[in-house]
Amino acid sequence: MSGADTPRLHVGCAMWSLKAWQGRFLPHPSTAEERLRAYAGWCNAVEGNTTFYATPARATVASWAQQTDPDFRFVVKLPKPITHERRLTDADTELRAFLDAIEPLGPRTHAVWLQLPGSFTPADVPVLAAFLRRLPGDHRYAVEVRHRAFFDDARSARLLEDLLAAADAEWVPFDTVAFFRTPPTSDAERDAWTKKPRMPHRSRALTDRPIIRYLGRDDTAATVEGWQPWVETVTGWLREGRSPTVFIHTPDNADAPELARRFHDEVRARVPDLRPLPEPAPTEPLTLF
User: Which InterPro entries does this UniProt record tie to the protein (predicted)?
Assistant: First the structure.
């Protein structure tokens, strides 16, 4: 394959700005526009988690597009009123407002992400089916479920897989196995221990653009050890012609951009013709001495 047909690996983080990144991954001081632009020099994708809490202004989204190249990818989360409060019913007004707001991203919208609450059970799948049927066909969609029956009960898993595959929508796993393998050792890990869901490893792709969310530890060695199965899986997907997106999380996310690049490097060592990531701009002024 070549050109547009060449499989791509997008990697990124849960956000594009974090205080701990300033002066390291991001310039300091910097404006919001400078932070996104700098982040896009480290990673070529980002989770749009902020849209869960409020639909952004269209002008704000247009500024995101202006700060990123056309091959940068956003996975934007549907707002909480749609998925958690209205639970995918009677939310057409909110949905239209959201889709209109993200329109300026154009091809940068990798997928519209439906993160469903843990109370969304296999009995609710018909509601999801009806919602997916109403969605416009000019976006790709990805669904994250957290009720354990979807993972532990083969019939429930197959029910969801069949629905998503028919809609050309992806099932987004949030792999927290490595995180919960041993007790927490830092304040950030202890906080995440009480807030993050205990989700199993799931690695079956339904489309040509699978999306993975992986939670490691604050210890780099433990994070890298925990993602080794994903290196194998992603390598296999690329060889099959799929273009995966992998988001690397840690409890404090302090090293997340560097870790995302390391994951990309590990896969590229196995798939040498994989397109490299952009080169980060220096965060400090260049000097002659």
Answer: DUF72, UPF0759_sf
Whole-number pLDDT of residue 192: 97
- pLDDT tens for each residue of 204-226: 999 999 999 999 999 999 999 99
**Position 288 confidence tier, pLDDT thresholds 50, 70, 90:** very low
Alpha helices in 103-227 (DSSP H): 125-134, 149-152, 154-166, 187-195, 220-226
Give, for 112, the enclosing helix (H) or strand (E). Answer: strand 109-115
Count other Cβ atoms within 10 Å, centred on residue 70: 10
Nearest to 169 by CA among 129, 202, 213: 129
Residue position matching structure tokens 């050309």: 168
* pTM of the entire predicted model: 0.95
d(CA 160, CA 155) in angstroms, rounded, equals: 9
Q: What is the pLDDT of residue 40?
A: 96
The Cα–Cα gap between 261 and 8 comes to 14
Q: Which domains does the chain have, with CATH numbers?
A: 1-12+176-271 (no CATH), 44-172 (3.20.20.410)
Determine the straight-line distance between the first and last CA of the chain, rounded to whole angstroms: 45
Nearby residues of 30 by Cβ (< 8 Å), 6 or more positions away:
22, 38
Yes or no: say if 186 and 133 are a contact pair by the CB < 8 Å rule.
Answer: no
The one-letter code for the residue type at 265 is D
Among the listed residues 104, 61, 98, the one whose alpha carbon sits nearest the alpha carbon of residue 79: 98
Whole-angstrom Cα Rg for the chain: 19
Q: How far apart are CA 2 and CA 227, in angstroms?
A: 28
Residue 289 predicted with pLDDT over 60: no
- Side-by-side strand order, sheet with 109-115: 170-171, 141-144, 109-115, 73-77, 45-48, 10-13, 245-249, 211-215, 174-175
